[in-house]
């Protein structure tokens, strides 16, 4: 009992965050800004006549809002998130649907952006946060039916997850669907789901995503391009080939910060999906490997904190958020390295994108909040 209420009576364990985790967040964020400044300098000069265009936008719209979100999530008692979990999820669903209206903005043949007045953002990034918070609140509620119940657990979870997945697939955002499904299934499994239910839903998800890939030529081309990297080297496989050239040319120590040659006119989206290739070229195997190690430490620390969380809600929050960040970082780095088919997800804390950075920092604030009571 004393441990549970430690934070309320002034115990040190209830007020000290996990400083190692905070250090990891700080290092990843600073590293991301430093590398984005390099990866975006030439592109900013060419497109906007401003070498600092992208890094300034990342700071103004990503870092500023992200730090605000981190502080709010850190000081706002995480138990209170339960009361806003459902409204926040409903708002996210509405925003996801609005991208298909006149408020939506099409970028690179994808409807992922929403423009409301002077503000443009990606609702799919917000969904990663609100979906996890809602599932954690739902399955940790002692008054709720067990997750093993067909009518009160399996079917509602399947319908909600399937509906959100359809909205994301229509954008299209297949990789985001896979990441959310993995995080959602992790929470659902920990809440007491039966193996046969998990197996059935996993099989259904695999079949569903497989059919979507087969039905859309551009998705299918990514799979065939991965299996045959030497085919269509100037078309479908151009980005992957250029990324591998960049990583390979970096060698052990890299060509030097700011000295990438491929980011200028060869590597598509050097600020977004392909930024890991720029890191590999400029900082070499040691730099890229160091970043992989940072994400590994980040992941293990979040899951360790989840294991030691004082309640189920905190545990489910950290498992879900940790899965999202870990899987997204792996998918980005593995795909640009040619280990899995190419995707379009940003590298957490590093890739250009104000919405993504703000959301990941807010997620980190929640983790730090829960860590105060671990």
Automatic annotation (TrEMBL):
Transmembrane as UniProt keyword: yes
GO biological process, one term: cell division
Pfam families: FTSW_RODA_SPOVE
GO molecular-function term, one example from the UniProt record: lipid-linked peptidoglycan transporter activity
Domain of life assignment: Bacteria
Transmembrane annotation, as ranges: 20-39, 59-77, 84-105, 125-141, 153-170, 176-193, 200-220, 283-304, 316-337, 349-370
Membrane topology term: Multi-pass membrane protein
Places the protein is found: Membrane
Signal peptide: none
Family: Belongs to the SEDS family. FtsW subfamily.
Family annotation (PANTHER family): CELL CYCLE PROTEIN (PTHR30474), PEPTIDOGLYCAN GLYCOSYLTRANSFERASE FTSW-RELATED (PTHR30474:SF2)
Protein name as annotated: Probable peptidoglycan glycosyltransferase FtsW
